[in-house]
Amino acid sequence: QVHLVESGGGLVQAGGSLRLSCAASGRILSRYLMAWFRQAPGKEREFLAGIGWNLSNTYYTDSVKGRITISRDRAKNTVYLQMSSLKPEDTAAYYCAGAQVYSGTWSFLSNKANYDYWGQGTQVTVSS
Q1: Alpha-carbon Rg of the chain, whole angstroms?
Q2: pLDDT score recorded for residue 56
């Protein structure tokens, strides 16, 4: 069992940056994919980025590509999401997720039903 805890959210002005962290307790196996999603009020939870735990291969959704970077520290069992040039429309709850097995296809990455573990979320609010 893997338990995920996000941190690093908060209030930031438009154009600013934030780094979110996701600390995992329990054993993350090399085949796992770790990912970040977000959910704005009244909207579906959407995939942002994913990273293979073993090879550190990364995946991004086009809408935020270039403004976010996902990374992981295996020694710390932590996944990060660095966000820059933040916009008010980035305001959402941000969630960390883990999948025990995965493929790099969009249909897999974007489907939240494919993820086995979820954190409780951290709120990011971007003011204009």
Answers
A1: 14
A2: 83
First-last CA distance in the chain: 40
Q: Element (H or E) spanning 93, and its range? A: strand 92-99
pLDDT (0 to 100) of residue 26: 87
Query: Lowest mean pLDDT: which of 6-10, 54-58, 96-100, 111-115?
Result: 54-58
Arithmetic mean of pLDDT over the chain = 95
Q: In what order do the strands lie in the sheet with 68-73?
A: 3-7, 18-25, 78-83, 68-73
Task: Tell me the C-alpha distance between 86 and 110, whole Å.
Answer: 22
Task: Read off the tokens for 118.
Answer: 């979820």
| Alpha-carbon distances of 20 from 14, 25, 43, 87, 118, rounded to whole Å | 17, 17, 21, 16, 15
Residue that the structure tokens 């974007």 belong to: 110
pLDDT of 50 above 90: yes
- Cβ atoms 126, 12 nearer than 8 A: yes
Beta carbons within 8 Å of 119's beta carbon, 6+ residues apart: 4, 5, 6, 22, 95, 96, 97
